[in-house]
Amino acid sequence: MERVILVKEALVERLAVYVELIKLKLTLAVVFSGVFGYCLASQSVIWWKVAVLVIASIAITGAANIINQIIEKDSDRFMKRTAVRPLPTGRATVTEAAWVSLVLFSLSVFLFVYVFNIRAASLAVLSLLLYGFVYTPLKRRGQIAVFIGALPGAFPPMIGWVAATDQFGWAPGILFAIQFFWQFPHFWAIGWLAFDEYKKAGIQMMPGKAKDSDTAFRIMLYTLFLVPVGWLPYMLGMTGIHSAFIAMIGGILFLAQTFHLMRTCTDKAALQMMFGSLIYLPVVQIVYLLDKV
Q: Integer distance in angstroms from the first to the last C-alpha of the chain?
């Protein structure tokens, strides 16, 4: 009996490590965007397919996150928020992490192909390749990494739409564009707050070289795009006028936070902007769904 208990405890411990490896909280945010795209595109939502999409999305995102951590296992030791991850602490080996990533990747591709379609599967694979093998190594090379990383980061709603329709087009492109532009103020707010730690690790995540008004101005410019882009789903007949107004108001409020950052250049303003970004995207996506045409 005692041996059984020890085995169970060991399994629970390994499972907890794997949950850390896939960055479950971040992964669930990605999954939400994918489900949003699927539901917005579907004339009638098939809930068992939504459940499969959730599993496939968790698997592909988790696999990409593990690749990211394998490549960054050395630099992660220099930052407080990443030094406690399984690889830097030795709670998981690179070989073990690689096998987990491979299993998750294989499961995801199988589900996307078998339940949905080749196009959605291809986008999912491309997302993993860009995030794991292009964006991650480029983080130590310069600011171009943020632009590259914004591509796979904006794929989830487009993958969801294509999974539902098996078609590309303007509609999934607009969903991609909204999430693409949103990522710049979101990640640069994080980069502002972790500026010293990123610098210590040799990672350049900011659009400028210091936490100053010039950097804040560049953040504001990219946030500005969210105001007109938020209208496009309505203009394409995807959603109604009510959600367009709410998206516009959300974009203006988000933009106002960047003006506050420009004026004060403080970590407090950057933190407020980061929380604002975390509120903006899910709220806009939910109102689009509620106002779906």
A: 58
Q: Which residues pair with 292 in a beta bridge?
A: 239
CB neighbour burial string for 271-286, b if at least 16 within 10 angstroms, e if fewer: ebbbebbeebbeebbe
9 has a pLDDT exceeding 70: no
Residue 166 vs residues 115, 151, 162, 289: alpha-carbon distances, Å: 11, 20, 5, 20
Residue 10 has pLDDT above 80, yes or no: no
Per-residue pLDDT reduced to its tens digit, 40-99: 999 888 999 999 999 999 999 999 999 999 998 888 787 777 888 898 888 989 999 999
C-alpha–C-alpha distance, residues 261 and 273, integer Å:
8
Joined tokens for residue 81: 């928020």
* Coil, strand or helix at 236: coil
Phi-psi sector, 167: left (phi>0), alpha (psi -120 to 50), beta? beta
Mean pLDDT for the stretch of residues 144-170:
93
Q: What are the tokens at 26? A: 């971040």
Which residue bears the tokens 């794929």? 155
Instruction: Measure the CA–CA gap between 256 and 279, rounded to whole angstroms.
Output: 14
Which letter, b or e, does each residue of 137-176 get, where b requires 16 or more Cβ atoms within 10 Å of its Cβ? ebbeeebebbebbbbbbbbbbbbbbbbbbeeeeebbebbb
- Residue 292 has phi, psi (to 5 degrees) of -60, 135
Q: Looking at the predicted structure, is the pLDDT value of residue 176 above 90?
A: yes
Q: What is the CA radius of gyration of the chain?
A: 20
Q: Which of 6-10, 201-205, 267-271 has the lowest mean pLDDT?
A: 6-10
How many Å separate Cα 21 from the centre of its chain? Answer: 15
